Amino acid sequence: MTEADDTPRMEIVRGNPTEEELAALIAVVAEAYSHESAEAVADVPHVSAWQRTQRAMRRPLRRDIPWGRYSG
User: Looking at residue 2, what is its pLDDT?
Assistant: First the structure.
């Protein structure tokens, strides 16, 4: 399986399932996979006009420079 191939893969490692059992397994797993992937979509946050036009008043503080050292 290559990295570009993102199709789900299933491997039966034990037992001897019939074609009907495999079909039932694939149907259940495919439904669960599609349901989970549909719910995994993140909501786009609402950005108000105030937040879009808001600018920072100053640069954020640099916490990596200890006190007493010139920061440039």
Answer: 54
Residue with tokens 């993102």: 6
Select the more confidently predicted residue: 69 or 24. Answer: 24
Question: Model-level pTM?
Answer: 0.44
Alpha-carbon distance of 2 to 23, in angstroms, equals 25
Q: Please name which of 25, 26, 29 lies closest in space to residue 37, comparing C-alpha atoms.
A: 29
Q: Classify the C-alpha dihedral 46-49-50-55 as positive or negative.
A: positive
Torsion of CA 1, 4, 39, 35, to 10 degrees: -40
17 conformational bin, left if phi > 0, alpha if psi -120 to 50, beta if neither: beta
Q: What is the pLDDT of residue 68?
A: 67
Query: What is the distance between the alpha carbons of residues 35 and 29, in angstroms, rounded to a whole number?
Result: 10
